[in-house]
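Comment thread on ticket #2218

A.B. wrote:
> Attaching the input chain for the structure job we discussed in standup.
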Amino acid sequence: MPFTITRRRIAAAGAVCALAAAPAYALAASKNGITPTSPRAGATVPKGQAVTFKGKVRGPGVIYVHVCKSAKRSAKEGVICTKEAIGKAAKKGGTFSYKQKVFAFDEYWLNSPGTYYWQAHRIVCENGNTSDCRQEGPVVKFKVG
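C.D. wrote:
> Ran it. Output below, let me know if you need it in another format.
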C-alpha cells in the first residue's frame, strides 16, 4: 500500500513539530495546578507603573501572589517571602490576575529597578490533609527597569 499524505497526517506532523519547538519553560512552568503567564520569566516591567500578575489555575482555592527580591522559599511553607508585595488574586474560570498598585515613594519596589521574583499559590486542603494547605506554583524571575 503506497504512502499517501492526508490532511490528518499533515496536522499530526505539525502538532509534533510545534511541541518540539516549544520553549522548555512553557512545558515545565506548572506546579500544583498553577501556571504563571505574565510577567514571563526574564521579562522587564516598566519602573513606576502598575503590573498585573496573571496565570492559569486548575482546581479550587484562593490564589495569592507574592513578590520578593529573593527566590528563596520558606522551608515550612514552600513560598517566597512577602517583603515587596502580597495580594489576593481575582480568579475567573481557569485564570487568575492580581494588579499591584504603585505608590509614590522611591523605596517602593516598583520604583526601584532590579531583579525580583513572583510566585502564586493557592490555599486549599485536599484529601483530608490539613498539614500543608498552601499549594505553591513555580517561582518566576523578572526585572523592574
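A.B. wrote:
> Thanks. Noting for the ticket: Residues 7-28 have pLDDT under 50 and may be disordered.
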